[in-house]
Structure formats: C-alpha cells, structure tokens
Amino acid sequence: MAVHRGLSGKPKDTEFDRFFEEFTRAGAKMDWIEVQKTPEQILSSFTKTTKSLTDGRQSMLSAARAGWQAWSDVAASTENGTRLLVYIAARKSGISVDRAAIMAKEATTNFEQRGEWGSGFTSMYMFWNASVQGTVQIARSFARNPKAWTVMVGKLFATQMALQYLLRAWMGDEYDRLPEHVREGNTVLPTGTETFITIPLPWVYNVAANMGRHTMDVMLGEMGAEEATVKSIATFVASVNPFGGDPFQKADEFKDLTKPENVVLALTPTVGKLPVGLSQNMDGLNRPIRPDDFGNRPESNAHKFAWAEKPYPAISQWINARTGGDEVEGGFIDIHPDDLEHMWQFLTGTAGATAQRFYGLTRGEKVPLREVPFLRRMMSQPSEWHESQEYRRNLDELEIMEERIRIAAEKKDPVGLRKVKRSDPKLWNYYFSSGWKEMRSAVKRLHSEARKAETPEREKIIREAIKRLQSKMNTKMAEALDQR
Questions:
Q1: How far is CA 305 from CA 72, 86, 214, 279, 324, in A?
Q2: Cα separation, 207 vs 239, whole angstroms
Q3: How distant is the alpha carbon of residue 205 from its chain centre?
Q4: Cα(13)–Cα(483) distance, integer angstroms
Q5: Residue 230 has pLDDT above 80, yes or no
Q6: Residue 126 class from Cβ within 10 Å (0-12 exposed, 13-18 middle, 19+ buried)?
Q7: Are 232 and 210 spatial neighbours (Cβ–Cβ below 8 Å)?
Q8: Separation of alpha carbons 377 and 369, rounded Å
Q9: Which terminus of the chain is less hemmed in, N or C, by CB atoms within 10 Å?
C-alpha cells in the first residue's frame, strides 16, 4: 500500500511511507514504473468496467485496455514492493543508505542496468536484458563463494539423481509420459497417482538438476551417454540463451545441435519469431504448432484436425467461410486453428494464455490439469498426446530408413543397402518384420474417418482406436529396439 501511495504521489505519514520516500531519494526505485491510481481507485475502476461490459455499455477492447492498466499498476507496485522490503531490512540492520539502495536494486533483476549495446539488443530480443543479468548474477554468486556454490549445486545434482531413481522405480511409464519440458523445468514429486507435484527450478540451476536426472538415466540404461550429454548442453543453452526460446529441446544427438532450422529460429529477433515459427511449424520450445496432416482427404486448413480446442476451430472456420472458402477449398484467409492459437498466445503472452485458460474453465467442460490457471504450475499429468507424439517420432525413423532403402534400390547399389543395414541393424530387422506399413495405412484411414464422423461420440471412438494402434506400434518398436 505504501508503494502504491508513493508511486501515485499520495503518501501518508507512516513508517513505510517515510522509508519509501528515502528509498526513492536514494535511487532504489525502478524509475520506468509509474502508477496513476491508488489501490482503491484501481478496484473501483475494474468493478465499473466489469459492470459496463456485462450491461453492454462498453466494448471488449475498452475492457481489455482497462484490465491491462489495472494489471500494470498492480505489477508496478509488486516490483518496487519487493525492493522496498529489502531496503527497509537493510536500513534497520544499520546498513548505510547508499549500500541499502544498491542491495534493493539488485534484489531482483535490475531492468535499468544495461551495457552500451543493451538497448539495441533488448529492442530485438524481448528478454535479452533479463536473461543476461540473470546469468551474470549466477556468475557473481559463484565468484563470491565458489566453495558454497559448488556444494549447493552438488547437493542439487545428487538429490535429482536419487529422485530420478525413485520416479523410474515407482511411477515407470506414467513418469515417461510427462512432457519433457515439465521434467526439465521442475523438480517432479510422485503422489502415487497419475498426477505429479511440480516445483519450478530456477534458471541455470536447473542445469545441475537435469545433469543429475540424465546421469541416473544413463546408469539405469534409459538413455545413452551421448543423448545425456546433448540434453544437458541443450538445457544449459536454454537457461543462458538471451535470444529466447529453447532451440535444442528435442536434441538427442550431437548433430541436432547444428540443425539449421533450430539455429535460425533461435537467432531470429522476437518480431520475426512468429512468421518463422509458423513457416517451420515449430514453437519456441521446438514443439510442432500443428499436427501432421494424416490422410489424403482434400480440405481447407480451417477444417483440418487440430489440437486447439474452442473457440479456435470455430473462429478459423468462420474466417474461412467469410473469405470465400468451405470445407474443401480454402478462402482468401484460411488459417489452421492451431496456428490461430499460436498467434494469440505469441502476441498476448502469459496474460493471453491465462485468459484463454479461464475461458476454458467457464465452458463447464472437463479441463485438463495443464489448462487450469495457477494450479498447472504446481501439478502436472501425463500428456494425452504422448502416444501420438511417440508414434510420430517412430514413424519418422522408419520413413527415413524407407527413403534410404528406396534410393539405394533405385541406384541398384548393394553396398549402399549394406550401409543402411549396418547403420541400425535392429531398426532394419523391425522395418522388414513388423508390418509397420500396414499399421501406418490403418492409422491414416482412421484419421480420415474421424474427420468424416457425423457425431462427436463417433469421432471419439475412432480416435481412441487410433491411440490403441499407435500404442501397439510404439510398444512393439520399443521392444525391438531396446538398448540398441
């Protein structure tokens, strides 16, 4: 409250207000933050806006602007409030004004501090300054006390090793089905059910945690040494990368670290990440934005199968119809629902994603835990898309071998065929003995039938059949390629 009053120019004669005045004179306040209203005014304005929107007297755009201003004012007070508490604690401990101001500035990321080129880089890459300063702070903490820092990181490494052993032994496949970005960014604790407790790991320190996790996986035979090394490098790059994103999230071989598409997306300035990501079908975490186009049925992008739920398919189809399109032919503007969702979340950030999740809760339907605001940060469940994603990865391997065999056969090159076989004998044997091509054809046929389903219930039954087929192939391939 004292911070709000001080920022809005309406202080009172209290200890906190006096400290805030001293705090401001000492230069500890973040000067780029400005608040126009008191907490009471913010609440009153927000209440009036909500009522006007409900009564139809205010547009959605005006309401969004008012909501954004209220959020900004609260965020501004929170940003300086943390620093003020540090400042007060330092002054009450007998520390000088100047030293206390420095401590307050450095309590969290000091967004005002930047080098000669900082403004230029920050204008190109949104989180450049915060990322660089966070990495520098970690380096400083190591320089101040290398022994204590090493002991702390060592404990984190050992704890994650032990925890990984427990999760593998106790939860098995359920733990495997957790999305990789959840396991990479959190300490995961089992509950005995399919729901896991997740505690976010701080950036940079999560590198040590993941190294412990990968080391245990190597010891248990869950992954090879090369894959563990590459994944640790990828985690480190994501943690200190000032360009934003996680360019090597799916890397498991050294050659993946130099793939052009990964490097291009990572180095693309923030303003260009949206068009580049859409063209490559890849988000900032190297995950596909939209699913692969199964089946051969001609149809517009707006009517294709999508992961996105309401309202994106309806919006895409409405835009497509209004610009001259239908189910088969795309209109002048024909946007895939998943592309539309990605554009919304990219342009609106965390606030937009949270608003979307609140919208999902208001529909009265069953909402996955990953879509429940706030709770999703503390808990996680296995992805319902795990089987299809694993199936896609397995299919990619088989289709790459299929193409290599086709090229060698066309050239009538027996030496080339032997090279293909020697490159992965177990995959070669599975390729010729498993009947995977028939399974691929069946999955494509079922995807086509699901799109033509007359009722949601029928579509759900068909998609369950697809999952069973994909799971069957995943299991057979895992058994055939075990410890290859």
A1: 37, 52, 35, 18, 20
A2: 8
A3: 18
A4: 71
A5: yes
A6: middle
A7: yes
A8: 10
A9: C
Positive or negative: CA dihedral 93, 97, 102, 108: positive
In the chain, where are the structural domains located? 2-108, 145-240, 301-380, 386-480
Single-letter code of the amino acid located at 214:
H
Contact 286, 248 (CB under 8 A): yes
**Residue 352: how many other CB atoms lie within 10 Å:** 13
Q: What order of strands is seen across the sheet that includes strand 196-200?
A: 186-189, 196-200, 379-380
Whether the link from the prior residue into 311 is cis, omega within 30° of 0, is yes
Q: Residues with Cβ < 8 Å from 202, sequence gap 6 or more?
A: none
Q: What angle do CA 405, 406, 408 make, to 5 degrees?
A: 65
CB 15 within 8 A of CB 9: no
Radius of gyration of the chain (CA): 27
pLDDT in tens, 276-297: 888 877 776 667 788 766 444 5
Question: What are the backbone angles phi and psi of residue 449, rounded to the nearest 5°?
Answer: -65, -35
pLDDT tens for 345-366 read: 888 777 777 777 776 666 666 6
55 token code pair: 């009564």
Mean pLDDT of 297-319: 75
C-beta atoms surrounding 6 within 10 Å: 23
CA angle 206, 209, 215 (to 5 degrees): 135
Strand partners, 188: 198
Q: Is the entire prediction scored with pTM above 0.85? A: no
Beta carbons of 347 and 165 less than 8 angstroms apart: no
- Quick one: DSSP state of residue 159? H
Q: Which residues contact 170 (CB under 8 A, 6 or more apart)?
A: 190, 192
Q: Confidence class of residue 181 from pLDDT cuts 50, 70 and 90?
A: confident
Tell me the C-alpha distance between 90 and 103, whole Å.
Answer: 8
Q: What is the mean pLDDT of the chain?
A: 75
Residues 6+ apart with CB under 8 A from 18: none
Selection from 474, 438, 444 nearest residue 462 by Cα: 444
